[in-house]
Amino acid sequence: MGLTQEQLNAGIDALAARDANFARALGHAGYPEPRIRERGYATLLRTIVGQQVSVAAATSIWNKLEARFGADCPVEAVAAADFDTLRACGLSGQKQGYAKSLAQLVLDGELTFDALPADDEEAIALLTRVKGIGRWSAEIYLLFAEGRPDIWPAGDLAVQEAVGRILQLGSRPGEKEARALAEAWRPHRGAAAIFSWHCYNMAVI
Fold first, then answer.
1. How many angstroms separate the CA atoms of 205 and 97, rounded?
2. For the segment 67-79, what is each residue's pLDDT rounded down to a tens digit?
3. How big is the CA angle at 157 (ends 163 and 129), to the nearest 5 degrees?
4. Which end of the chain has less Cβ packing within 10 Å, N or C?
5. How far apart are CA 153 and CA 171, in angstroms?
């Protein structure tokens, strides 16, 4: 599970104690709500389903998949499903390839969600072996489903924009700069990311 409200608040408080910019932003924005997902295969499959489609479309596809295969779309059923069955549920050929890549890694025992590497970079490397799962998706999974406290999705444009505003940089930093700036925020970069998304949606920051 993701960072609890208590963990999130403690991380943001630590950042505010270190950096007056965070303290100012916290005064304006307040604490964000936790972002929590279930740990496991189904959450990553839903990530694949949701890529490049609206939330409504993703929900519709997922509901069709569950209606066809059962709750959380059991891995064996997805692995065995044929093209036409998955197509009827709304999955493109490309996403079918991604879903089957995920299912096969799980069935082969190469990807075990209850025993991902403790090292964040090793865990990201393993998750990105799934076709269609890039670094950002892996980071989001580790932050929201596992609650790893120091995950920093520096490639996220909303995070970059919010960091520029929080730190009063005058412009949005790129991924490399955002990654460098956040080194000072270890081991609370996960809380910094969730706070950044929170601030991104607020005009007052």
1. 42
2. 999 999 999 999 9
3. 120
4. N
5. 18
44-77 core/surface letters (b: 16 or more CB in 10 A; e: else)? bbbbbbbeeeeeeebeebbebbeeebeebbebee
What's the CA gap between 178 and 176, in Å, rounded? 6
Q: pTM for the whole thing?
A: 0.93
- Cα–Cα distances (Å) from 177 to 73, 124, 126, 135, 180, in that order, read 40, 20, 25, 17, 5
pLDDT for 151-204, tens place per residue?
999 999 999 999 999 999 999 999 999 999 999 999 999 999 999 999 998 865
* The CATH homologous superfamily of the domain defined by 41-144: Hypothetical protein; domain 2 (1.10.340.30)
Residue 14 corresponds to which tokens in the numbers above?
């630590």
91 CB contacts (<8 Å, ≥6 apart)? Answer: 49, 61, 65, 99
